[in-house]
Predict the structure.
Amino acid sequence: MFFFMKKLLNHKFSAFFCSLIYIMLPQIVYRSVQPIVLESMIWLPLIFLIAVHLIEKRRWLFSVLGGLIVALNLFTGFPHFAFIGFSLVSVYIFSYVIKDFFVRKDFKSGSFLMLQSVTIFAIGTALFAVQLLPTIEFTEIATRAAEWNYNLATDVSFHPLRLINIFIPKFFGNVSPLVNDFWIRMPYYSSWEMAIYFGMLPLVFAVYALLRNRSFHIKFFAIAALLSLWFALGKYGFAYYLVYLTPVFRKFRCPARFIYLFNFSMIVLAGYGIKDMLTNRVDKNLVKKITIALLVFAFIIFLFVTGIFKGIFNNYKSFDIARKYSFISLAIILAAVLIFFKFENFKRIKSMPILLSLFLFLDLFLACFGIFESSSKPELFFAKNDAVRFFTSESGDFYRVNTRIKNMGLVFPRNIGCVQ
């Protein structure tokens, strides 16, 4: 992420700031108990870096490198995030093809770039064929070969209520077995599938960049963020039906995973925002407008913690849980407002980059802290049941088990399949 953002911004601290957001992103940290999924997600910045170099230099070397990276991404074993990332990279490259065709009127260069980009995915698919072909064969006898429809495909859609998590990451509680105060009527795994929080300062910087600058990259990633959020809504927004019609995504469930592209795009916008504020004169009028909007949100949260909205909750226990986490988020928002509003003064301080990094670290640490502390009580997190004992009794053998049974739920306790 650092090298990708450094390539885009040509500004080291802004690139570092974005990379710190990325490695501490709740959507990624919450996946720490699912290494296969995590290993699939982390390739997107590198693929984007190769795409930027390819667009800039138009050399076949980057097509080959891109193909190798695409193959490695697919070999991680969790193709959904890989395909989601590939779709954004493809649109990014194609936008430059369109530029060559219709803006620069250079059809030769545009065609050449299109061929090079197709080569990336052709090489990646060819290398991955050793796993892809058996997978296609097995899908014909998998559970999704029959009884698969749009309702099943939109299972785990991003619920609009989850937009609250942009400001209060743990508003609906903590799914950790050590805490277990998750109160909303959603599956526990919605906590990481719908983790939309990426930090309060990054949100402010992203909004600043969006309103301040109209460069191609800001427009592109702003549209990408908006469409990704729309697709993530799944059954709550009709746009996902267009995704469902495509052959690649038709057999996937969980539209909420498109939140990953939303988070990624917003991090890029945040990078442009902080670079602008650090290297140029701050637009004070724009800062005031954004600050007022933030203070309005902070005031609403303040009213909430005072108990004025207590009556809308089904039970007071849920309210107490939401209020507990809202206190922390309110403090983070007010601190972010102060930093943002006085940024022109603060940036003269030599240690400002360190202070910004520490604040970001604290913000994201509090958002992720206590979610999966499996090392403290592994017997609680990875409790063994009869199914686990049966499959681990014969040493030296490996099994691939359908971990979910229709109308029954999980065969294994949650997370155990990632460990055993």
